[in-house]
Task: inverse folding
């Protein structure tokens, strides 16, 4: 089961295939060993009793798999395999599918016990391409039962993400703020991912918010907020407005998801938001993120999708941060240098106003948005700028990730693994000091060179492998990553 809601549960199945000139018992026996290895590894998988040797077998297997609610299939070549029937199975199944093959067990049984699945995988991959079928193929897709079980474990987050995207609705409330055109990107590619999008006006959101005035549920949400905030509940007077807004979003999601199962938001949050709604929405965004419903800031649609992908891959709460400011040299010299193996240019501060879930902060306090307060409420006590959840982000392994559509509607992405350092930021907002090896070069030759916006999704684990596999499955060709020292980017000046 997932730790969060708003995501699919993967129901794995495995189906063995066999070429008619090889013993079917070889493929069946090897399948049973893989299932045994999966159970030993804590992987729940349905074992299809039909071994596919022909197209007729394929139809029987397909009926059995569907009858048992399998939504992610492992096609297992226990021997060479029938290339037409096995790839037709993947095509007819139409949900996430993985191909893997058996290695030979012993040099003492290479007559009747040789399956030639190493060879069969080549024909399988060729036929998948001929039929235009997407499939997850591991880095080295041939192995023992234990090795194939490990491959299947790696397939789970990929399958969960693909299933999630295929049942996802992205709800946005715009337009985007002026001078944040970097968050604007063509939406055409979202449909290629399998997602749907509903774009709305900020006025639609305002009308829905006003319709929730005096909602009988507001007090129970206030009580829940106060319980979560605890000693950090420093501005309790803003909670009624925030509770009303939370109900507005959750009701909208239920009323507008339509035939989709999962919902995320990309919402306007300034500048007119504060003067009309009377608060900053950050804390509500943080609470929804903790429930598996990412809400991106500044109508950043691809930011929200990036968060959702990171959530599905990690099965954990995510956040969206600005790749915001440098770490001062005195902070680096006093708190990082000699204690952690990073250069100053490997570090930066990831920041957002207050949208990170409380479970991902070392401590959390309800505050006001300092930058907005300067412009909207100068020389007075904060009122309409209240609503941020502030604190330092927990020390953790992280992956910085973004999927983006370029101006000419081509998907690209970046992935970089690093960590949030256990170093106090001495700043405001939801913020952390992040270290990524060779971040300075990555910043220049991926983020700037490829024209990425300032928002990045933060996944609280090293999830680069799974994210890369998801992007490959989705057909994303341009995937940037932080290259080690000495491994030059194509545009990098080798004499610099």
Result:
């Amino acid at each position: 089961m997932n730790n969060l809601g708003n995501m699919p549960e993967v129901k794995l199945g495995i189906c063995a295939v066999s070429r008619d000139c090889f013993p079917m018992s070889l493929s069946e026996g090897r399948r049973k060993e893989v299932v045994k290895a999966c159970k030993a590894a804590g992987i729940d998988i349905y074992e299809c009793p039909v071994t596919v040797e022909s197209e007729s077998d394929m139809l029987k297997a397909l009926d059995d798999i569907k009858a048992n609610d399998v939504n992610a299939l492992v096609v297992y070549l226990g021997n060479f395999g029938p290339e037409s029937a096995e790839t037709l199975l993947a095509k007819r199944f139409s949900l996430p599918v993985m191909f893997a093959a058996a290695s030979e067990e012993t040099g003492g049984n290479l007559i009747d016990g040789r399956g030639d699945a190493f060879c069969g995988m080549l024909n399988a991959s060729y036929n998948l391409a001929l039929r235009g079928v997407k499939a997850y193929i591991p880095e080295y897709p041939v192995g023992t039962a234990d090795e194939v079980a490990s491959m299947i474990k790696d397939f789970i987050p990929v399958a969960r993400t693909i299933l999630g995207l295929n049942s996802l609705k992205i709800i946005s409330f715009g337009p985007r703020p002026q001078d944040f055109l970097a968050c604007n990107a063509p939406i055409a590619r979202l449909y290629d991912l399998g997602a749907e999008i509903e774009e709305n006006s900020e006025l639609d959101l305002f009308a829905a918010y006003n319709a929730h005035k005096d909602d009988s549920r507001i007090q129970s949400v206030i009580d829940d907020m106060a319980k979560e905030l605890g000693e950090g509940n420093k501005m309790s007077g803003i909670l009624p407005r925030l509770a009303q807004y939370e109900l507005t979003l959750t009701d909208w999601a239920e009323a507008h998801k339509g035939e989709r199962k999962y919902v995320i938001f990309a919402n306007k949050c300034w500048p007119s938001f504060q003067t009309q709604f009377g608060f900053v929405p950050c804390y509500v965004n943080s609470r929804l993120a903790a429930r598996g419903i990412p809400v991106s800031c500044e109508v950043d649609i691809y930011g929200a999708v990036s968060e959702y992908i990171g959530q599905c891959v990690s099965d954990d709460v995510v956040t969206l941060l600005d790749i915001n400011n440098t770490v001062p040299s005195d902070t680096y010299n006093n708190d990082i240098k000699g204690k952690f193996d990073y250069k100053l240019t490997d570090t930066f501060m990831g920041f957002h106003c207050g949208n990170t879930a409380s479970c991902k902060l070392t401590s959390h306090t309800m505050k006001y948005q300092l930058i907005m307060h300067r412009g909207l409420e100068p020389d007075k006590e904060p009122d309409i700028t209240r609503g941020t959840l502030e604190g330092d982000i927990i020390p953790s392994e992280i992956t910085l990730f973004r999927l983006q559509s370029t101006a000419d509607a081509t998907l690209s992405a970046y992935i970089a693994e690093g960590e949030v350092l256990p170093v106090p930021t001495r700043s405001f907002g939801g913020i952390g000091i992040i270290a990524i090896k060779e971040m300075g070069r990555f910043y220049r030759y991926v983020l700037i060179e490829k024209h990425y916006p300032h928002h990045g999704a933060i996944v609280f684990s090293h999830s680069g492998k799974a994210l890369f596999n998801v992007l490959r499955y989705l057909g994303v060709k341009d995937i940037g990553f932080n290259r080690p020292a000495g491994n030059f980017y194509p545009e990098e000046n080798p004499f610099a």
The chain has a mean pLDDT of 95.
